[in-house]
Amino acid sequence: MGIEEFPAITTRLDAVQAWGRSNSLWPLAFGTACCAIEFMSVAASVFDLSRFGAELIRFSPRQSDLLLVAGTVTFKQAPILRQIWEQMPDPKWVISMGVCASSGGFYNNYCTVQGIDQIVPVDVYIAGCPPRPEAILEAVMKIQHKIANPRTTPASQFLVKEPHFDY
Ligand code: SF4
Fold first, then answer.
1. Considering the domain boundaries, does residue 13 fall inside one?
2. Distance from the CA of 156 to the CA of which of 1, 4, 78, 122 falls in 20 to 30 A?
3. How confident is the model at residue 154 (pLDDT cuts 50, 70, 90)?
């Protein structure tokens, strides 16, 4: 029995909305160090982020829904990162790429933020220094899964603690 025999397909509006959102992510790359170079390779032809519908990299927060923080973040940069995140329209998601963004990495010093979750809520962390391009693709897929399956994703994943940061 072919699809042509059915005059209509039924679904839910929120399912269509989630499907559309998950397959048309517009990333904003907040690249501050070497991880940003690795991210560039993901956008290039070999790994081809375009296959996941997320190739339209914007450098305008008002046109983006996926903030990808790639690199070390200093306390001087922290207010800028926070402002960019605040300017992004809802719904929005955040990927922390690499140990520097996720925990400060080996820059355990006075000027480095020890994890961007002190500044913005993070949805997915990527381990590594730098993470392999495959890991970045997996993070994008995790975000897509989270968006497309709001009912099956554990509620705890949506309880992102609002960070507190004194500028
Ligand atoms: S995690 Fe490694 S590759 Fe990424 S910004 Fe830090 S030092 Fe560079």
1. no
2. 78
3. low
Whichever domain contains 121, its CATH number is: 3.40.50.12280
- Cβ of 100 closer than 6 Å to ligand 1, yes or no, is yes
- The pTM (predicted TM-score) of the whole model is 0.86
Ligand 1 centre to CA of 41 (Å) is 15
Cβ of 127 closer than 6 Å to ligand 1, yes or no, is: no
DSSP the chain: --GGG-S-----HHHHHHHHHHT---EEEEE-SHHHHHHHHHHSTTT-GGGGT----BS-GGG-SEEEEES--BTTTHHHHHHHHHHSPSS-EEEEEHHHHHH-TT--STTB-S-GGGTS--SEEE-SSSPPHHHHHHHHHHHHHHHH-TTTS-GGGG-PPPP----
Task: Report which ligand 1 atom has the smallest distance to the Cα of 37.
Answer: 3
pLDDT beyond 60 at 150: yes
Number of domains composing the chain = 1
> Tell me, what's the pLDDT at 2?
67
161 part of a folded domain = no
